[in-house]
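A favour, since you know our structure tokens better than I do. Would you make up a two-line entry for one protein for me to read? Write everything out right here, beneath this request.
=====
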Amino acid sequence: MPGQTTPKTYGTVSPEARAGMTGLEFVQGLADGTLPLNTIAETLGYDVIEAANGRVVVSIVPTDRHLNPSGTVHGGLAATLLDSCMGLAVQTTLAKGFAQTTVEFKISLLRPITPQTGLIRAEGLVLNAGRRVGTAEGRITDGNGRLLAHGTTTCLIFAP
């Protein structure tokens, strides 16, 4: 994976440690494995693979454990990937001592995702990051670049 230097671990980063990092340093630590990924990433099996100012990419290979009763990947997986990449993209723009949380997000599912889809990537891009509110958009694509889902988010920016 691009830039990865350390094997991935899972858990949380203490509030004190997070406060000493810019948002970009924090998210780059998730991507390169120097910081633990959140435990939902372990549960679902996704990874943060790229982090730059205003841009984050997460990826996953969907499996049978992600299926809904109809036999396609549950829309909640796409929602989680988009919420993660968009929120983390906003996080990359923040100064030390600031955090963000999702206020609302909207997604549109365009094509079914199945285990046969193979590797999918969710890319989040910041549209605007102000002092109190950040917005971003996200796109999930397959290995052929086909758009599978997209979304937008609004995040509250705050000093914990």
Residues 75-91 form the longest helix (17 residues). The chain has a mean pLDDT of 95. The chain has one domain: 15-158. Residues 15-158 form a domain with the Thiol Ester Dehydrase; Chain A fold (CATH 3.10.129.10).
